[in-house]
## 1
Amino acid sequence: MTQTADGAEARPPLGRERVLHAAIDLADQAGIEGLTMRRLGRELGVEAMTLYYHVANKDEILNGMVDLVVGEFELPKPGPDWKAALRGAAISAHQVLLRHPWAANLVLGSSGLSRARLRHMDAILGCLRSAGFSAEMTDHAYHALESHIMGFTLWMVAMDLGTDEDLRGLASAVLEQLPRAELPHLVEHIEVHLRPSDPADEGSFAFGLDLILDGLERLVPAAPLARQRD
């Protein structure tokens, strides 16, 4: 920030990027339902109508928010270690979407073409193709990965179980009410959540992701990179 003549910090000039970042901050705090033009204007210290000098409408704001959030995703690089590249990209996308709990629904329902979204899709597809998958198999593999990332994230956001401490408290309360003799496997499942976690355990998202990637590895044709060089 710059300083005014009296030494006070001056706000950066209002522009599209500042509007979009403020909208993301507001959605992170209040949810996407709490994002209104009037409230966004208050956060920026301007009247709501002033925002329309920088964005055409609320749809442009929502599409711009998607572009910025997806732009945080790690992009996989084609190469021999395609599994590690795709694994890192998937975990990155999942973590970004959890930081912005409103974003997964918005990404899936966006009315505009996000350049960052298109780049991310193209990078995933390119990584699969470079591994040797056919165009048809790449289509199936892409959707398996995408549905795991988005579906698992949406499930976690919808559950909204709070912190690990909140989850343990909820699990303990549920256990007190369950008939152990009738539901022994469910009781055991809940008790697993009360145990100290293994530091080597990356969690259920990574577990499911590895199942997908290991399954894809068994389907990849032999020596794809060597054939591409011929």
## 2
Amino acid sequence: MRILYSLIYTLAFLVILPYFLIAGLIRQKYFASAAERFGFIPQCNSEPSIWVHTVSVGEFLAAKPLLRKIQEKYPNIPLFISTTTITGQKLAAEFLPDRTFYFPFDWSWCVRKIFQSIKPGLILIFETEIWPNFLWEAHDQKIPVILINGRISDRSFSRYRFVRKLIPGFTECWMQSIEDASRMKQIEKEPQRIKVMGNIKFEYQPQTLSPALQRLIQDWKGSSLLLIAGSTMPGEEEILLDSFKALRSDLPLKMLIAPRHPERFNEVVLLIRQNNLEVSRRSENQSSDTPIMILDTIGELAGVYEMADLVFIGGTLRYHGHNPIEPAYYGKAIISGPKYKNFRAVFDEFLSNKAIIVTEDITSAIRNLANDSERRKTLGNAAHELVRKNQGAVGFVLQNLRKYLDDRSIMEPGTKSSVR
């Protein structure tokens, strides 16, 4: 089965290789990370380490409070972080210089090279990344692999259920919700290894907004209400711009748009100008009296939510949603479209606690909240309280990691049965 999978993976890689080459040439992506993705990383380590994998910015930011606690409690155990995306890698490298790298391609020899370089005694995977050769290699070398903050969406459930029959599973699976755990129990061969930990994203700890950025946003915002549209996706900016044009004639409203993908920054700026609206860019670091600003930087959106009066959650009009916890932390009034199945458990909690407005009519929702400061306050307070009462996932993880980290013999690769 490993040979068949590797053959299929290789053929798929060859099929999409032209795309990567073209994207690399046009957007300056992929080339810089190619060596690391093949397993050639500069890091060398002589003792057992902890390898933490976070796919992108969202997963990394969610993991940061836990990573800090691990560093505090186990300062003598080396910690390494891998990411899949460029944006995630940038933030991880700022947090842990010289101990970050890109997750390798899923060929056994690539994975083995990483194992040889950093000598992981324990691997922590955030949010359900299933790579067969990676899991096979960890199983062969008896390295425990723990799934943390695991979730299984409607879309991925059947795919994971099929793949799981063909490969080793995780040593343990710590899932976000009862529903996620129930699904994982239908996938994993040993359901007793599955626990509900809650959602670590409720442990969100924002980076402090710099005084310079605070002044920039406040000077630009002035006395207007600020709508922040975070992590927007293709096709959503057009809808938001139509709503904004309909509203700004009778509302003191400004809008900050943060596209989900950095490669779309210029595209969205052009779209705004085609709609005969003036736009400024945060990267220009100048306050100008434009109705719209593009947040064209990496890692600042979470902190900028503090400046909002209203927040729209991107990905909920055309795709499968993004996480509303970051603006909820600041007690902001949150509006979402009806598409959120990738975060259904989180949204269900927000809805049951009357901490979010979900609607297809974004224009009316913005208008109603903009004209009702008490409603904004009530909605924001409910969101903030929901975040507060759901905290505790970091404590769960630390408590359950003790059996792996307090007994250093377990951290010696090859000494304990691991991936099942």
